[in-house]
Amino acid sequence: MGALNSREDYIYWRLAYFFISEQGYRIIQLFENQKELWLEKIENKKVPIVRLLRQDLDWSSSMQRDIEFTASNGEKIRKQLGHGGLSILNIYISKFPPVDEYEYRLERPFIFPQGNKTSVSSVLLTSNQYESGFKSLSTRLEREVSFPIREEYSEEDVNAQKKATLNFAIQMAKKEKEIFTNGKPFFTYFFMIIQVAVFLLLELQGGSTNTSTLIKFGAKFNPYIYDGEWWRFITPIFLHIGFLHIAMNTLALYFLGPAVERIFGSVRFFLIYLFAGISGVIASFIFSPNISAGASGAIFGCFGALLYFALIYPKLFFRTMGSSVITVLVFNLIFGFTVSIVDNAGHLGGLAGGFLAAGILHFPKKKKPFLQLLFLLISAAIIYGSLFYGFRHSATGGNESSTMMLAQEYIKQENYEQAYDVLTTYTESNKPSAEVYFALSFIEINLGELKEAKSHLLKVIEMDPDLPEAYYNLALIYLEENDISNARENAEKAAEIKPSQEEYSELADELNRLLPSSAEGE
Fold it and tell me: Is residue 434's pLDDT more than 50?
């Protein structure tokens, strides 16, 4: 049998076990003599840092000096963590209390004088006063702290408790580390290489900011999706518009991708990334008629996967990366909503897609069948409902913006017949704007249908009397018909609305010179 009367040593390790195993604290520092232990719980800034000291106290003045030392050390920790304020729960385990008056030193927290940002609240656990000490400790922590205490403990008891405490801390640290070693960032770098290579290809084939090039290589273009080009839900993930776009997304993937791939493993990361990217494109398809491309939805999906990680392992998430992830995510969302060219629908769709995909796949070597099935059903319902809504919207005529985009694309290709079919089909079941009628008149001019073009231009002017291009084109049609008077009148109107346009003024001047001679000939 070992020596007895090691009760305070046992209480010291039993308290450490309570904080580590039941309250989720981690060891910051264990001093070499193992009589002083600092514990933290980073994921909850409201709870204090805990300092345990196993020391027999003699005079209260030495206690005060130790409290001041603790505050000084805490101030250094506060600065390292960058916290605005830090509270420390300082627990003494002593066989006897100090021989002189000491209670007043424990009544109020000690505030570190330089800056008043670090406070130390002290509690004394000592023989014959454990009940009041535990009561005070429970009040400070706002939760019950108590365990039965025998009169005597052997060294074997103490060592067993110490071993249990340290083993638990080691095992918890080992389990946490394993969560971050499920995969190496293979697919992160693979996707980075692919998107950079595709960007260079776009630049060589007409430019990554060229609309026709983007559409040719698979950008999200609603009219073509309506026509059955389903692959445009996938290909936009790998296309980027301009150098800044590719640079920002590649940098974001470089920093974010490895964390997600290490947590979920490479195969799961691959599936999460693509599912999130597709979800982002679907959301953009529903809510935005504009051409779009980029890996932003997939990258926001990485944020979504990390939010799922936070749902399952909240303590570990907030202790390791939580604050930075939440801060960057919120910043990106705010940035997206303040910059008009950003496809927020794609970002939010990707965020939701990443969260749902992570829920379906869960973590390597771990299963939650009911939860995974629930996520699968929710995801299927959302995807089906979104596509149904998107294509039903197309069946009822789509929207004017998409129609105009498709017509303009055909015009760029000088495919005037198809552009004409697109616009006339739209006008049959919708109320077109002046812009649609003007585009239709332009197509008709190129097809030689001047009568129809004139009719549509007159309608444009009726709807928008301040559109100089309509007057100019109408003047050209009248000139073609040898109606110099009406041609001059419309040319002058175009020049009046937009005097800076030289061709309008030149046409008006030319017609003014022609009109007198024309009148004499009559």
Answer: yes
